[in-house]
Amino acid sequence: MPTRTPNILLILQDQLRYDVVHDEGCSTPGADRLRAEGMAFSRAYTPTAICSAARASLYTGVYAHRHGVLNNVTGPEAVRTNPSHDLPTAAEMLKGAGYHTGHVGKWHVALDDAPAARGFIDDRAGDAMVTDDDRFEDYRNRWGAPGPTTVTTRYPEPGLRASKYARFRFPMYATDTVAQDATLANAVHEEADVLLQSYATTSEPFFLVASFIDPHWPNVLPDPWASMYDPADIAPWPNFNDSFEGKPRTNAAGLEHFGVGHLTWDDWAPFVAHYLGAVSYTDHFVAKLLTRLDSLGLTDSTVVMASADHGDMAGSHRQFNKGPLMYEEVYRIPLMVRWPGVVAPGSTSNGLASLIDLTPTLADIAGAPVPDGLHGRNLTPVLRGEVDAVREALMCEYHGDEFGLYSQRMIRRDQYKLVYNPNDLRELYDLDNDPHELRNLAYEPDCAELRQDLEGHLVELMEESADPLFRFGSSILG
């Protein structure tokens, strides 16, 4: 067992689906190596599927209803633009424990607080290099991608009165390519590589976050990744033709909100091909960072964690992006941990884990005090092979996005997922027998007792986390 405090490298990606990372049809040599040399969590979840809220939960170890960032911090619809300052971040905890801390890439945790204001000593290639608005044009203006070849979502033509307002179209992917060294992913890798080389010359342990914006749309890629996957070879997602029968109205509304209701699989297949290309492209930088640790002699003394803020619908259930839909494609995330000498190589944990678990886990690995009141659980007993799981069930929540506030709560337990939509139908899925979530069992008589039990368990989890929805939810659930 290692005796010195280990270095920690956290690799974070944006909108990375669990199923794609674990699919042999998608090339991910970096993730493959981490799985072979560490532990992969098969049931890890984001606490909420929107960037700022999820990232704030990652760094504070609490749900969004506690840190206050309920939706993205950059838009005019933001409820709160910075997480509560009475909550220390993981970086602040590790910095206090003697770690040199660094952050590279997408932050998106706060509008006013940069990483340097929340515990990171080094802050490179952050949110200033890319914003949420006009992201595709930022790519194009910065690196000169040739020609207007972006493919976008599309809304109906406006009526006479509405014609004075421009219809916003979401950029999905580009049919042209950019140079190998002219991408945000490459910039994040280069800055992280520089910091790793610098940290290798010091005696203090380091905590470095390499946060890639990819594979978040729009997927603007260099070759060979732009053409790595042939759309003609990609079969429709098994739930692509979901009829939404017996499901909340938000399913149909999502098609309307994003302007994708008209898209057929022939329209989606090129987007999925570019998404897979972006996954493989970003993963090759993960592999390069692992190789850099090798060359610097840091492999055996460095814990590597790799995860994502949330997933991406990418055409599953015909949906774009994410939103008030608590499907596995968005909420289930990859989580891999390599800890030489501690984690058994090639091991898998089937225990439930959450992104909010990373802060107490990081603190424990670093020997830093873990604050009271965190919602996350320390995963080190699982990593050490001492226990199979640290929780029987977990809760996820959602508060809204660009289209307005919309409350949701979810409980994941055993093979089941129950979703509480206060203003719409409940959802209940048996993920063993219906992994693609096509059949809502919430209103089937044979499932009444199961639903009641899951609802009662969800209320308990809401109470434990001081969820403000508990008061009203406890009056009707269970």
Describe it.
The chain is of the alpha/beta class and about 475 residues long. The protein has one domain: Alkaline Phosphatase, subunit A, CATH 3.40.720. The chain has 14 helices and 15 strands. Strands 1, 2, 3, 4, 7, 8, 9, 10 and 11 form a nine-stranded mixed sheet that branches. It has a four-stranded antiparallel sheet with strand order 12-13-14-15, with helices on one face. The protein has a two-stranded antiparallel ribbon with strand order 5-6. Strand 14 and strand 15 form a beta hairpin. Helix 2 packs across helix 9 and helix 7 packs parallel to helix 9. The protein is globular and about 65 Å long. About 5% of the residues have low confidence.
Keywords summarizing the entry:
single chain; nine-stranded mixed sheet; four-stranded antiparallel sheet; 14 helices; 15 strands; globular
Topology:
Blueprint: E1 7-13, H1 18-21, H2 29-37, E2 39-45, H3 51-60, H4 64-67, H5 90-96, E3 100-105, E4 122-124, H6 135-143, E5 150-152, E6 171-174, H7 184-199, E7 206-211, H8 250-258, H9 265-295, E8 302-308, H10 328-331, E9 332-333, E10 335-338, E11 347-354, H11 358-366, H12 380-383, E12 393-401, E13 404-413, E14 416-420, E15 427-430, H13 448-464, H14 470-476
Parallel strand pairs: 1-7, 1-8, 2-11, 3-4, 3-7
Antiparallel strand pairs: 2-9, 2-10, 5-6, 8-10, 12-13, 13-14, 14-15
Helix pairs in contact: 2-9, 7-9
